[in-house]
Amino acid sequence: MNLLLEQLRHWRRTERLIRAVWGGARLVAILGTVLALACFADWTADRYLGSETWRRVLNATWVFAPTAPTAEERWFSDHMRLAHGFRPPPAAVIDDTPGWMHAGMTVGQLALALGLTYWLLVRPWLRTPPIDDLAQHAEKAIPAFGHRLVTAIQLNRPAARTQGMSPALIAAVTREAGQLAAAHNLLRLVDYRRLGFALLVASPVLIGWTVFGLAKPALAGVLLRRQLLVSAEIPRGIQLKNVSEEVWPIGAEVEVRYEVTGAYPRPWFTDRLRAEHGFALPPPTAGFSGRLRVEPDGQPAEAYDLVYEKEVPDKPGAAYFVTKLPPSSINFGFSARLDSGRTRETGRVRFEGRPQLSPDGDALTAELWLPKFLGTQPDGWPFVRRTDGWVRGDVSDALPLAQIRVDAKFNKPVRSARLVPILREGARERDFVPSAGDNFQLPRDIDTDRRSAVWLFPTNEKLIGYRIELTDDRGFTNEVPIRRTVRMLEDRPPAVALLPESTRHPDPENYHGTSTAKLAHEWGDRFPLAEGGRVMVVYSARSEQGVGRAAVAYRVIPKGVAPDAMPPEWQQVQHPRQDWNWPENKKVFRRLPLKPVTANLAAVGNYVPDLGLFEKSWQGLSKFDQFKVNVEFYSQPSPNPEAEPAGLEAGGRYMFEIDGLQKTVPDGSGGFTTAKLEVGDTVELYVEAFDKNPTPGRAPGYSQEARRKIVVTGEEAGVAIKMRDEQNRQLQLQDKLRELAADQADLFRQTTNAPKEPEKK
Predict the structure, then answer these.
(1) Do residues 259 and 320 make contact, with C-beta atoms less than 8 angstroms apart?
(2) DSSP string, 340-363
(3) How open is the CA angle 154-158-159, to the nearest 5 degrees?
(4) Residue 196, C-beta contacts closer than 8 angstroms, at least 6 positions apart
(5) What's the pLDDT at 761?
(6) CB 531 within 8 A of CB 713
(7) Which residue, of 358, 364, 580, 646, has the greatest Cβ tally within 10 A?
(8) What is the per-residue DSSP string for 62-87?
(9) Strand order in 495-499's β-sheet?
């Protein structure tokens, strides 16, 4: 009996083992297939999610297609942004296998594994047939047992109900069953075909995973770890490294650049053909491009081509791929895909203003520092002139040998600030190239915060303007030119004017110096010149470069001598500007320098410009002696010594004596001789004035018209004076009559227009 029970128990254990193998094979096949599908889904999502193809698919569906915001939504967004500075975060971009997908696949596989383990392993194990069922199955398979096998097993159990049964009969049945079991091997009844089926079911999955693991060990390991929710990056054949500049100037074309390594198409073969054989074929990378996704802040995303640029120098196997974006001022994030490669992290570009002038109203000012030959202020500094447009940085009427001071304020700290003067040569402009000693391109002074600078540079006769070039710490420059105009004052000689001859007294307190007596003393240029007399020269001169000195340029035109009979130099010289720089012995016009006069105005009174005298120049002098007073050259003081230089205007009076003048006349033998001045000869004179500019060879200025006087006799001069006095008396009488008539007319109007008395009620 023990042998029989041992065979049945062994049979049952074998059955359980076969069921476990068969269930395990199916479990491995199903879970391996599901795991493979999950890994493939993970790899596919990682590869294609976020790609342009995927986005086009989503946009083609009515569920996931983006919808335009309504007017109310746009108003609310603008209100929140403008009133509260709130910007909604950009929509999330799915560019990787989502976490929920990872978690769902992992949880699903765990649930499936638990369910299949129970269904394919635990349940079949628990439902293994008991010994009685196996004995019954053996009786059916071996008819010789009859019913002895099951009967013997059941009757020999301790709890068997054998009351009323013959023990001898039970022992006989048990003996016969044991003899039959000893004669037959019950394990031959086990169905071993399920082991083959198990091998057939599990082998494809196991072989598939084995081959994949041997072929792609890194990828297989990463995919399996990702199924266990371990963060790991799927290896790719192409790697992208962002090497773009993070900060760009506002309004610039941005270049997003990636350094690409890995299995991208190499252009070396085409380059070799082009270099060695002249084949002008496009490189293989010309058609191999990726996509760059740009997400401006608060704006919808955009896509651009990421194209091959060039190989990375000194780095074999690497190349630059670049995308040039249009000018913008909105910060944005970006990510890229190139075949199997893509970026793991989102790049970022932000914009920063270029260096420019500060928005303050006085961001750029320019002052003209007058040249030192005009003198200095009481503290020793040059005089400063602010012309029209100085608050904008423009300079007008700039003087030679002056300096221009430019003060600039910037909108941000700068690394370098350079001022470049601009010269005009003909129709072209060029930058001024300084000599070794000029260093005014560099700021004369930069503030500690590097937001302001000061330049001081000299003027030039060809100077037309300047520009300022700024560079900040990031290397940004001011593309919008900071250019201002400099207008040089026309370099003209002093303006000289001959003033009317006048015998009016310079003291306004004197009767003959009042305005009513002015007409009686004004001669214009008709004051007669008697023999041995004087020519009254009253003049004024002005120059922005100061009036440094003056002289009387004169000559004598002899009476009755034809111009072509004079020496050749007389024929070609008709104005003193034609011979001012000739040698002294060849000049046609002679020069009489006018001596500078210094005066104590408190003692001599104010200067009277239209008379060329001081108010007290004639004080205590007789009428005859008054005409001997000379104020040859008086440089007028500054009306504001603190801000304006002196000597910009000058003038005076000089009584030019003709006694002793010589004239040149033909001697009758083809030569020339000198003779004393006679009645009928003409004295011609100009006033010649030089400015203070020390540059050698500067031409003088002249009075616009000459003063020409014909020498007359004393009697003729007296008659002319009397005739003019009579004319003046008549003019004064006419003026008096007109004044009386006007007074009478006013009186008549006052009488006729008397106010009426008010009416009585």
Answers:
(1) yes
(2) TEE-SS-EEEEEEPPP-B-SSTTS
(3) 75
(4) none
(5) 45
(6) yes
(7) 364
(8) TTTS--PPPHHHHHHHHHHHHHH---
(9) 495-499, 534-542, 649-657, 631-635
Token readout for 470 is 């700024």
Let me know: does 636 contact 644? Beta carbons within 8 Å: no
CA angle 623, 627, 631 (to 5 degrees): 130
Question: Alpha-carbon distance 422 to 430, whole Å?
Answer: 6
Angstrom distance (rounded) from CA 72 to CA 688: 83
| Whole-angstrom distance, CA of residue 575 vs CA of residue 74 | 82
Residue 486: per-residue pLDDT = 95
- Picking from 54, 101, 470, 517, the residue whose alpha carbon sits closest to that of residue 291 is 54
Q: Which of 581, 574, 523 lies closest to 709, judged by CA?
A: 523
Number of H helices, E strands in the chain: 16, 35
* CB-CB contact of 672 with 664 (8 Å): yes
Taking the alpha carbons of 96, 101, 107, 112 in that order, is the dihedral positive or negative? negative
User: CA-to-CA distance for 599 and 606, rounded, in angstroms?
Assistant: 10
pLDDT at residue 56, as a whole number: 65
Alpha carbon 330 to chain centroid, angstroms = 16
Strands 672-676 and 662-666: antiparallel
CB of 554 closer than 8 Å to CB of 657: no
Contacts of residue 643, Cβ cutoff 8 Å, sequence gap at least 6: 377, 383, 384
In the numeric block, which tokens belong to residue 712? 């007359």
**d(C-alpha 563, C-alpha 672), whole Å:** 13
What is the distance of C-alpha 495 from the center of its chain?
46
Q: The tokens 């009428």 sit on which residue? A: 623
Check: CB of residue 360 under 8 Å from CB of residue 452: no
CA distance 513 to 506: 6
Cα torsion through 34, 38, 44, 50, rounded to 10: 140
d(CA 537, CA 703): 11
Q: How far apart are CA 599 and CA 596, in angstroms?
A: 10
What lies within 8 Å, CB to CB, of 408 at 6+ separation is: 357, 363, 364, 393, 417, 452, 453, 454, 455, 468, 482
Q: pLDDT at position 357, please?
A: 93
The confidence score (pLDDT) of residue 745 equals 73
The C-alpha atoms of residue 221 and residue 227 are separated, in whole angstroms, by 10
Structure confidence at residue 637 (pLDDT) = 93
Buried b (16+ CB within 10 A) or exposed e, 26-36: bbbbbbbebbe
Global confidence as pTM: 0.67
Task: Copy the structure tokens of residue 243.
Answer: 């090497």
Distance CA 693, CA 212 (A): 95
For 219, other C-beta atoms within 10 Å of its C-beta total 16
Which stretches of the chain score pLDDT less than 50? Answer: 93, 281, 283-286, 439, 761
Q: How far apart are CA 536 and CA 533, in angstroms?
A: 10
* Cα-based angle 364, 366, 370 (whole degrees, multiple of 5): 170
Q: Which of 471, 456, 363, 457 is nearest to 416 (CA)?
A: 471
Q: Give dist(CA 560, CA 557) in Å, integer.
A: 9
> What pLDDT is stored for residue 38 in this prediction?
92
Report the amino acid identity of residue 556.
Answer: V
Per-residue pLDDT tens digits for 7-59: 667 777 888 888 888 889 999 999 999 999 999 998 888 877 766 566 666 66
Output b/e per residue, 78-98; b: 16+ Cβ within 10 A: eeeeeeeeeeeeeeeeebbbe
Handedness of CA 97, 99, 101, 106 (dihedral sign): positive
In sequence order, the β-bridge partners of residue 367 are 405
